[in-house]
């Protein structure tokens, strides 16, 4: 199986469309040809890393990975609190 690669612009546009809410996530994912959970991962990455999301594919240190994970968790909890 070949792993697909998507540009940063594609990811940002997909998240913009997801947040716009014109289509359910499942329909949007099918239209874009990506798994639905990937849309949510991209959205979380943007929420956590902002403009730095999708910049290069450099390896993160364990501390950077943990920090990113904690930021995603905080973003999800804040989103739940707003609901």
From TrEMBL:
Superkingdom of the organism of origin: Bacteria
UniProt record, GO biological process: DNA transposition
GO molecular function: DNA binding; transposase activity
Pfam families, A to Z: HTH_Tnp_1
Membership in a protein family: Belongs to the transposase 8 family.
Protein name in the entry: Transposase
Origin species: Marilutibacter maris
